User: Fold this.
Amino acid sequence: MLSRYTPPEFATLWSSTTRYTTWLAVELAACEAMEEADLVPGGTASAIRAQQLTLQPVRIEEIEKTVKHDVIAFLTHVEELAGPQARWLHRGMTSSDVLDTSLAVLLVEASRLLEVRLEALCQALSRRADEHRHTPMLGRSHGIAAEPLTFGIVLAGHLAEMRRCLARLRAARDEIAVGKIAGAVGTYAHLDPSIEERALAALGLRPETVSTQVVARDRHAAFFSTLAIVAAGVERFATNVRHWQRSEVGEAEERFTVGQKGSSAMPHKRNPILSENLCGLSRLVRAAVVPALEDVALWHERDISHSSVERAIAPDATSLLGFMLERATSIVEGLVVYPEAMQRNLDRVGELFFSEAVMLALVSTGLPRQSAYELVQRSAMRAIHGEGRFRDLLGADPDVSRRLSSDALGRCFDLAHALAHADAIIDRALKT
Amino acid sequence: MLSRYTPPEFATLWSSTTRYTTWLAVELAACEAMEEADLVPGGTASAIRAQQLTLQPVRIEEIEKTVKHDVIAFLTHVEELAGPQARWLHRGMTSSDVLDTSLAVLLVEASRLLEVRLEALCQALSRRADEHRHTPMLGRSHGIAAEPLTFGIVLAGHLAEMRRCLARLRAARDEIAVGKIAGAVGTYAHLDPSIEERALAALGLRPETVSTQVVARDRHAAFFSTLAIVAAGVERFATNVRHWQRSEVGEAEERFTVGQKGSSAMPHKRNPILSENLCGLSRLVRAAVVPALEDVALWHERDISHSSVERAIAPDATSLLGFMLERATSIVEGLVVYPEAMQRNLDRVGELFFSEAVMLALVSTGLPRQSAYELVQRSAMRAIHGEGRFRDLLGADPDVSRRLSSDALGRCFDLAHALAHADAIIDRALKT
Amino acid sequence: MLSRYTPPEFATLWSSTTRYTTWLAVELAACEAMEEADLVPGGTASAIRAQQLTLQPVRIEEIEKTVKHDVIAFLTHVEELAGPQARWLHRGMTSSDVLDTSLAVLLVEASRLLEVRLEALCQALSRRADEHRHTPMLGRSHGIAAEPLTFGIVLAGHLAEMRRCLARLRAARDEIAVGKIAGAVGTYAHLDPSIEERALAALGLRPETVSTQVVARDRHAAFFSTLAIVAAGVERFATNVRHWQRSEVGEAEERFTVGQKGSSAMPHKRNPILSENLCGLSRLVRAAVVPALEDVALWHERDISHSSVERAIAPDATSLLGFMLERATSIVEGLVVYPEAMQRNLDRVGELFFSEAVMLALVSTGLPRQSAYELVQRSAMRAIHGEGRFRDLLGADPDVSRRLSSDALGRCFDLAHALAHADAIIDRALKT
Amino acid sequence: MLSRYTPPEFATLWSSTTRYTTWLAVELAACEAMEEADLVPGGTASAIRAQQLTLQPVRIEEIEKTVKHDVIAFLTHVEELAGPQARWLHRGMTSSDVLDTSLAVLLVEASRLLEVRLEALCQALSRRADEHRHTPMLGRSHGIAAEPLTFGIVLAGHLAEMRRCLARLRAARDEIAVGKIAGAVGTYAHLDPSIEERALAALGLRPETVSTQVVARDRHAAFFSTLAIVAAGVERFATNVRHWQRSEVGEAEERFTVGQKGSSAMPHKRNPILSENLCGLSRLVRAAVVPALEDVALWHERDISHSSVERAIAPDATSLLGFMLERATSIVEGLVVYPEAMQRNLDRVGELFFSEAVMLALVSTGLPRQSAYELVQRSAMRAIHGEGRFRDLLGADPDVSRRLSSDALGRCFDLAHALAHADAIIDRALKT
Assistant:
């Protein structure tokens, strides 16, 4: 976790204090369930709870250096603090019962933190899409001028993508909200499935259908894949900001704060560094997917190769994505939009984007499609080479004028017609 | 697509003939919708349909060499075959309207082919899990003998994972069942949203909420991620088969067919090559995920960088996974299981796996957990070093016998008790 | 292998005919070495060679269906064709002796085919870099106007990168030029190391230092990593072409051939589709790296999980890269450069890129660096906001004019000075 | 960086203190070179050096919050500490001159730290390979008993791989030992190439052939790819340890330290957790490769998307690999080897691995290879099914005894002959 890219809530969530506190919460939930099943003396958990133990991560890690086992070190420390009654904790359980159930609690919480941020991003995109419903802009495919659209449509596209991501993230959270308290190889040899069910419910989780020693790792692979898809969506937005802010395009730019310096060498520069940063961060979130997939095929009832991977990617990928979503929201909110530049870039195309309307009008007159295409391309190419205005060149082409009156040709050059469905499109994204 | 790893249905699905036939189906569906909207003369589509055109991929590719544009080449060829009425096709559409809608049709069909195979795998796993409900087996964590379970539980774990995969695949299919007929930059400049809706419905698809020139690629990224998760689940099963078939384990093995040869040098060998192959193939399916994620951030309203990626990964990843599922099903069905070897391996552990039961019994007598752990470990280590039977060493340890009577100790060594919940676990997987 | 992206030489190289021919070449080289060691009757190999066998891949695959072992199927077929003397082939060898040695022969040849293409790309870059040594161009960082350079410098940067790639590819070829004829587990149980050495030398290979049943897969991982680095270099060039060709930049573009059509909807478009395609293909080549790395950790003396991976990535990654290099060379050679557009874009920046020269001049007068920075930024921001020419605004700022005379200020605005080292830089790339 | 997996030297290397100290070293080296070129007053660098500044990372980060630019924040802080003479630092330079040159210094040092560890691993492998030159062991392909080898040969294979990795790492270090002090877009607009050359030489670096604003990122991609190949080699070794330590194999195991606990539930377990951990960590190191490759294609003269990626992967991948190499060395050194278990596993195969010798003997008598194969397989299958000793079954088969005398058959069953080349093989690895 790079502190630079870690929002405070994520730093707290993934701290060793939260980790051990969560372990204790799992042990106590299991203990209470065992009390109800008369496996453990009643009142044990509440007595330990009443002690309000202050777990000391440093001490746990010290013990771990000897026993080389993190959960045993933790239990030893709890016994140091809570006295003999702590021996009832962890009864019939295996380390993974604690670890995997805790990981589920933490990932569910991480997902919630991400969902809040993703909702905020959606709201920001909604506001700006609504604001720019009718701001004409040049649509570009291949980086080349294509046909007009509105900036609102573009933002609505990002909004629709982010809403899909929100649905995916919620589904991934549901998949990961699964723990296990089923003993060494998942057979409930020293427990009973009802204990697991009760304990997990208290923690907001469901039992794994069939666990091995661990919760199945396909759930985690699905979770991390989802994070990467969200990150890719943010990357798409960030890539577009970078394009809009290019010197030659200049249609929108990141808010430049007072005191900010663009370059140590060139005082005049205002660079889209936040968006570039988001592109880099998305590579990091994406890099968690393959290791998570490689973690699935554990040997027999489990090996521990997934553990180091998850120690890294669980905090890193969730925190980075949390940071990305915050930064993306702030870029959306602060984005300085230049409608006049958008108009200027539209104008510069010399109405070439009406070529399709002309072609369709020609086809309507009975001309085969390919002939119409070639007829329009002829004038377009001349316009591109500076031989005149596209509209005029078409009008002067006898093969065109023979088919289309001056009026009919003029009707092909209508921006309002081209953007007639903007509201309908944007509303589809805003309202779903 | 390696023919070796491509089931026939997938070879057909991804043939150029199917591709162009699907393009035509999309054009005709769009044409019919335009007829209803009076944009195109009524009866055009049905007249072309009636011609039962035989598209010639070779001819289309020949034209493409000149025009360097696949859809234009296709349309030119259709016009060659169907005559002037074909000029009404593709009206107001852009290439991606055809390409992306067709890709959705093909991916939906690919998903269906995969789901059928995944269901077959689930059925095979169900049968074998049911068959081996009560076949005792050594559970292993870290490759080391742990506690007993049944082979049915192990298979039920794979079954539960595959059922989750099936649900994911259906969700991914739903996400990808989206087309677009919205024109050059998704603005319906020369069409109307109602035409898109009608045409797509005829193809079993929904419209993209907000399209650019293309359908958004986060959908495809989610689809390919899902394939990789399924493949990882198959890899987990295959890895376990490889372990079971190890010479020293010998608990189960792939069916060896008559005439098969294990090694060109060593006539005695029977190798789990099908399962090893599945492990390799899962790497290939997994390798499609990152490119699919990299495809998301297209520039502005689209660039075409995703196209070559999809030309490769769409046929490859779906076919490979189809092959994997067929092969996995056949391995499950043919798996030769050796219950007596499972029992022998269980026996060889010398009942060490009852150590936890003994430890819990000691804790019940009031001994702190860590002391109980160390007490049991003492005898276990001696047993491992060949100093006697674990059960006897414990009985002879005064620190144990002081707390547990011979009878009480004996009750800790009970396989039936350890496997008491096997049916309940297996039924959870079978019944969901 | 997508035929669309496979140059003919690679199609031949990876055909089943070439594969089996190479296997036979390996068997015969080994046979000859065994003849010299008197393990096999002298003249066997030359007699078989003299038969000029026409291997039939279809027949081999038919046999494989029964024996489920490719090399045994191959040997059976050779025996069918060459008669009883063929039984001397493969003596004391294991399948991998043939397969891995053949793979080395094929990868070495693939590398040679790639090197030829990479050299051609370097030559094309050299020519164009030399041609545009003194063509001024706007340097851009973050997509924002920075300082001037020349187009030749930019191309020289790509050239230098490609030359590094060529050196890496040669090193990777050397690493992969390793075979093994060491028997089942690499112990030469039925052979002698001298036989391996002689046979491999005849094939242009060296023996693996210590083989298991196979040649170690770190060599292949290094090879495929190298391909991905080359592909990334091509992607960098292609990305730049896409930027240069953007409508708003227009500094260079891919050659547009006669008859080519840019868009099915928009006749006026000329899209950088070749370069976009290269960006997509680089994702595919990159996707081979992780599977190749995952192939390294084979179990014990080998498992066969790497085999299916290599069946896919060896032909795919080498062919795709071969295609990429050809296409990149053709883009470089045909690139239509617009020096006047480059000059226009430079002019549009309004000399802001001389800001650093002004700042350094101010520092030379004794002003602290940060004060100088802020002083220059003040005028730059005003110029950006359209309040005047940068040069004039600076001259009119008393804090500047107090320190720099009008002449001194003028000397800061000198393009020739900014580009003084262009030749030196370009020559470093051309001459190494 | 997870402190759990970060050796102290790497924690120091990647601390913010070392980072800023390295920046200052680069600025001072550049300053000295500029003094010699009379661009800066003589003695500036040495005067600043004499002040022995104590840079305060916290203060720098505080300034960065306002200026949003790390190098400007750093320079401002240096000016705070060193007074007005510091304004001569960074003259004509751009941030990347400092950042990329510093990164090169740090990566070179990281590589040196890794090489030391890799050499130690090679030494440990050498010692153990030498120790077990003649310890017979069962060779396994596909996890199935194959032919005998010695444990020394196996370790020599890992040694040879690690030696190749060492050579690759040195080559990668050489590639990365490249800085740049060439100004905003690499044109030396305000400097001179000779200054760069002198300054970099003082830091142990060479100049980039043609830099953009940054050093070309293909160098870094090659560096991180190399780390992943080393990690994959460690993973291969760790995977084998896990196999050797399996309960059913039991041929070697990780040293179990006093006080260590294998499982919180099962006191008798001794798990290969260090090796499993190495397998997980290799996934993390591998995960750095694709982002590094994605960093290559920066836009124009650079964008800053690579920066966040490198902030994460440079410390993480190098530290993790450093930890892996230390841990692997300690596993090799402490590995508890059980030659008697190796012998027992060899014996258990019932001499089936001599099947190839028998087959070759049969071929020598004139039998076609495939007939010999089937003849031997017949007895082998019977032996596997418990119908007798392989050797006896062969002797009793008239098709065999007709061709091979009892003596001739006996000579096929000779372990010493099978291992005759062990020394030669091991020496190849030890001596290179």
User: Anything to note?
Assistant: The mean pLDDT of chain D is 94. Residues 93-342 of chain D form a domain with the Fumarase C; Chain A, domain 2 fold (CATH 1.20.200.10). Chain D touches chain B through 48 residues (CB under 8 Å). The radius of gyration of chain D is 30 Å.
